[in-house]
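step=predict obj=CHK kinase-like domain-containing protein n=432
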Amino acid sequence: MATRDEQSNNFLNSDALNDEFFVELVESKLNLTRDQFKVRLVLISPATGKNENFLSVVYRAKINVEIFASNERKFVDVIIKAMLSNLPEIKEWSVFPREIFIYKNIIKSFENIWKERANEEIVFGPKCLKVATEPYEVVVLDDLKAEGFQMLNRKLGVDVDQAKLVLSKLAKFHAASCIRYQKDGEISKQLDRKATLQLFTKDSPFYEGYFKMIREFRSVISEIKGFEKIHKVVSTWDPEVMINSFFEATKPFKNGFKILNHGDDWLNNIMFKINDKGITEDVKLLDYQISYWGSCAGDLFYFLISSVKDECKTKYFDEFIEYYHSELVNSLKKLNYDQHIPTLNELWDDLLEKRQFASSILIDIMFICKYDSDQEITMEQFTDPNAFTPEMFNRMYRNDNYLKALKSWLPFLYERGYLNPVAFEENGEREE
């Protein structure tokens, strides 16, 4: 199995990044024809560090361009994102085609909805400049860093004000999706998780590895003094239910209300614009590879559990939910949404109903956020049960960052009843 570094080197040395590739980028970015400029230099560097991105590799390219008419030099800053994994499951999940579809057919339409209905300029993410499928799947985006945006430390998380900015942007995204849904329904089968993914069964390549993850997760809890009651509840979790818990979030509210989830809103997929006074002014969302229709509980649990500072996450949890609900209601009203808007109580009920999804986040995405080792971790390892050695589990679940977050979340979720198990029928629906 090739390492991520080997895959990256193969990509960088391939014909995918030839002269024509960069000329077309400049034409798109500067709205010039190729006889009006010359590419003088291209500098490519990693945009993220090791273990910061799991489904693709991301590079930052600075293109030095000479403009003939004015005899001036300009820089074109872009992000090059390439899918390098050869896992059949990744191909089956259509993560790359889905992201391209979102950039080409969704984001701009949502921004137009805000402009046309509320006269507000809302920007949800970077502009997509170019797409390629051969010899690699590649998407090229505006580099938000050149616009003053930055990524924050995933291991630390965001503060209260930053979390609210993210929740506000999510609420606006969700509200726009409701308007688009009234016109076009679910828009594409790619956004229907149940139509594009099958339930993981015991013969799935991921199942044995996930079973080992749950077993080790339970072991970690058993080692924490005072968590005996929590361990007892967690020990009742069915691994087959847990590995499929992401289907929970695809269910709409009981009254039928549903939104388009970003789906992967952890901290590495969000960029922040912070001014000279240290005040965060705006956020933009990245990586729409697993977006899906369903309950907003999906995005809420995913972001709040994985990406908020430990000292804020449980203390302000209720305030975060109330704030999101207020932003969602205000956004839907601004956009003249004429259907039922969920009440705050309905949102709380829905969060409780989707509780197993919250529990699963502790096992997977939260450990990724808190991972604190230089040892490489890849998607391929999750299909190889032999990769889960005691040393790897210690890096995943026993590092100080993860344990601190876990000790904060578990008592809170236990008291709320969010750790209580649920069961599913074979079609992925909840058994009542």
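step=describe
The beta strands are 37-46, 57-67, 72-83, 128-132, 137-142, 149-150, 259-261, 270-274, 280-285, 292-294.
step=end
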